[in-house]
């Protein structure tokens, strides 16, 4: 049976937003196994997709060509008999792999000098499309009008939730609100920690049984420590759990799946929450909320839409960070409170 290979992007959010492509491929090829080639930090996301048969982890260093390692991987892939490969990163390095593996149909966007390596070539619109339809378009012929793309959908099991709660010290019978204060792109995308702390105080004052979990990578720990410091001495302090760097990505996904709501910067965990259809408040400053918006049934994208945004810079080029600083906790609380189900107050 012919297999399909997906070559994953390097970012969590992009992997989530590529899931509708898999939905389209599964509908068109119901009996074809779909495998994903992914870097270790992103692999757990693909394992939560029902369309994926196997995740193959790469060992490439960031930015390195590692031609010998790519050749060895290509030989392994060749023996698996793939009929088609969908190359989601726009780099030359990842387009080399299916070409070296002798996969006949190699689908992707033009990217960087990939003529010949990609033989079913797509071209992006100007201005660029939002990410979900951008990836979903690869399931059809280049240039064909894109029908409405399905919504990304991950899944978690009760067993995964139970194990993640036990490890993280989350009481499974108390409502959980997740904060994601980090952002890989840079400090400009981060809502100030003192605003997250003020929001936590609002939540616990209104819903005394609520727990607030701070999720993120080890690099997000300092920002989360500031949130904890901001609630010190208040009634919210015992309810705020700093789990940044303390959970695996798979465990974080399970906790998000268990949550009553998620408040997040424009980050990978935002898109994880959307794909699990959790109520989401997404906070945008230097990035465009229309390019990668939340897609939960209940969701709000908050942006002050200042004249200087979206600047798409890692740090505020004007030095004031007003796009985030002036988006205060009161506004986010007014948006979040109606999303919280009645069970949170129980």
Describe the structure using short key phrases.
single chain; 346 residues; alpha/beta; Rossmann fold; 2 domains; six-stranded parallel sheet; 13 helices; globular; transferase; lipopolysaccharide heptosyltransferase II; EC 2.4.99.24; glycosyltransferase; Glyco_trans_9
Q: In summary, what is this structure?
A:
This protein has 346 residues and is α/β, with parallel strands linked by helices. It has 13 helices and 12 strands.
Task: Describe, in plain words, how this protein is organized in 3D.
With 346 residues, the chain is an alpha/beta fold. It has 2 domains: 3-139, Rossmann fold; 159-345, Glycogen Phosphorylase B (Rossmann fold, 3-Layer(aba) Sandwich). It is 34% helix and 15% strand. The protein contains 13 helices and 12 strands. It has helices spanning 12-17, 19-28, 43-47, 67-80, 92-100, 131-136, 158-168, 193-206, 221-231, 249-258, 268-275, 322-325, 329-336; strands at residues 3-7, 34-38, 54-57, 82-87, 105-109, 120-122, 176-180, 211-214, 240-242, 261-265, 280-283, 299-302. The strands form 2 sheets. A 6-stranded parallel sheet has the order 3-2-1-4-5-6. It has a 6-stranded parallel sheet with strand order 9-8-7-10-11-12, sandwiched between helices. Helix 8 (193-206) links the parallel strand 7 and strand 8 (211-214). The longest helix is centred in the first third of the chain and has 14 residues, at 67-80. The chain is globular and about 60 Å long. The N and C termini lie far apart (52 Å). The relative contact order is 0.12. It catalyses: an L-alpha-D-Hep-(1->5)-[alpha-Kdo-(2->4)]-alpha-Kdo-(2->6)-lipid A + ADP-L-glycero-beta-D-manno-heptose = an L-alpha-D-Hep-(1->3)-L-alpha-D-Hep-(1->5)-[alpha-Kdo-(2->4)]-alpha-Kdo-(2->6)-lipid A + ADP + H(+). Its EC number is 2.4.99.24.
């Amino acid at each position: 049976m012919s297999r399909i290979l997906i070559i994953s992007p390097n970012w969590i959010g992009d992997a989530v937003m590529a899931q509708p492509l898999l939905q389209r491929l599964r509908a068109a090829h119901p009996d074809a196994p779909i495998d994903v080639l992914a870097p270790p930090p992103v692999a757990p996301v693909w394992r939560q997709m029902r369309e994926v048969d196997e995740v193959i982890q790469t060992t490439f260093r960031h930015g390195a060509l590692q031609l010998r390692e790519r050749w060895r991987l290509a030989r392994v892939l060749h023996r698996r008999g793939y009929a088609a490969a969908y190359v989601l990163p726009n780099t030359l390095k990842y387009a080399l792999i299916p070409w070296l593996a002798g996969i006949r149909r190699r689908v992707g966007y033009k990217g960087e000098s990939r003529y010949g390596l990609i033989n079913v070539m797509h071209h992006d619109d100007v201005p660029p499309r939002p990410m979900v339809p951008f990836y979903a378009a690869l399931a059809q012929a280049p240039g064909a009008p894109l029908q409405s793309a399905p919504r990304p959908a991950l899944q978690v099991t009760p067993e995964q939730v139970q194990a993640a709660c036990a490890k993280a010290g989350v009481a499974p019978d108390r409502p959980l609100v997740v904060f994601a204060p980090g952002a890989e792109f840079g400090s400009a995308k981060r809502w100030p920690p003192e605003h997250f702390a003020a929001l936590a105080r609002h939540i616990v004052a209104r819903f005394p049984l609520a727990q607030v979990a701070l999720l993120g990578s080890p690099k997000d720990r300092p920002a989360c420590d500031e949130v904890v410091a901001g609630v010190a001495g208040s009634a919210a302090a015992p309810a705020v759990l700093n789990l940044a760097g303390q959970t695996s990505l798979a465990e974080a996904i399970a906790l998000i799946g268990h949550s009553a709501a998620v408040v997040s910067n424009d980050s990978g965990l935002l898109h994880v929450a959307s794909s699990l259809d959790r109520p989401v408040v997404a906070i945008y400053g230097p990035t465009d909320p229309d390019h990668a918006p939340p897609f939960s049934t209940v969701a709000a994208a908050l942006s002050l839409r200042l004249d200087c945004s979206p600047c798409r810079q890692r740090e505020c080029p004007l030095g004031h960070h007003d796009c985030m600083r002036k988006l205060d906790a009161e506004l986010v609380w007014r948006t979040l409170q109606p999303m919280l189900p009645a069970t949170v107050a129980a």
